[in-house]
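Structure (tokenized):
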């Protein structure tokens, strides 16, 4: 059975003190996690070790980085390598968030390189895809997302694709308070699973967790997560409050 996942994406938020408070609250939160229902907390780089320490006793809650570079090491001032992440035992990394694509010009090809190097170092990518509003309005979202998947993931082996978590995040729903309806989410998730099945086969496609992201809140998570192809969420704003994020975890 594929895993259900509630993933937090703190983005570029929190001072050290705020990060510590939020992690303390998360570590004492009453959440139902198991081997099949996990939570992943993607914190800014400076707080990775703190997050690992604070959440060490929390079973099935993992720490993630929000990005990585395509190279192993070297003269790339300001970048973070997967080699560093691996040396800190960070099990997941978000790759290709729409904010990285938009503000830092990350292309499908570059993201394929990031996916490759993450897998090489045994770090599971949380690969983001999703369309902008114009594309949704032109009703071309299915082919757009399909191309993102093909360009960045279709070169992988069956064994490799099974390590990837996919997050569908329509850009028009991110941080806007405008959530996709559960039907819109289900339609796209089903499309993504079909595209994966065509390439990798049904059995593999059925094992891959596909998360929805874009204004997931405590009060809409149950409805979204009840859709058959929605295996959880990638949550920005609502993950900055431990109480609200706990509701989302418990909606899995
Ligand atoms: P949001 O962000 O929940 O604040 O809309 C989601 C994301 O960008 O991962």
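Design, position by position:
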């Amino acid at each position: 059975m594929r895993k259900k996942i509630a993933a937090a994406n703190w983005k570029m938020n929190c001072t050290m003190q705020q990060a510590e408070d939020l992690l303390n609250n998360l570590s004492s939160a009453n959440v139902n996690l198991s081997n099949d229902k996990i939570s992943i907390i993607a914190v800014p780089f400076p707080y990775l070790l703190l997050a690992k320490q604070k959440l060490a006793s929390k079973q099935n809650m993992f720490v993630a980085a929000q990005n990585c570079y395509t190279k192993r090491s070297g003269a790339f001032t300001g970048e973070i390598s997967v080699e560093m992440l691996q040396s800190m035992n960070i099990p997941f990394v978000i790759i290709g968030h729409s904010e990285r694509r938009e503000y830092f010009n990350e292309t499908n090809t570059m993201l394929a390189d990031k996916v490759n190097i993450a897998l090489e170092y045994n770090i599971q990518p949380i690969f983001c895809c999703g369309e902008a509003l114009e594309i949704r309005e032109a009703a071309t979202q299915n082919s757009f997302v399909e191309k993102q998947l093909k360009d960045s993931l279709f070169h992988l082996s069956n064994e490799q694709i099974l390590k990837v978590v996919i997050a569908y995040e329509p850009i028009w729903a991110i941080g806007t308070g405008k959530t996709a309806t559960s039907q819109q989410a289900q339609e796209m998730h089903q499309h993504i699973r079909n595209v994966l099945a065509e390439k990798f086969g049904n059995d593999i496609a059925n094992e891959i967790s596909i998360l929805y992201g874009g204004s997931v809140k405590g009060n809409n998570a149950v409805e979204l997560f009840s859709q058959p192809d929605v295996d959880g969420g990638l949550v920005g704003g609502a993950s900055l409050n431990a109480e609200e994020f706990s509701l989302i975890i418990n909606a899995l």
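Reviewer-requested clarification: The longest strand covers residues 4-9. The CA atoms of residues 18 and 63 lie 17 Å apart.
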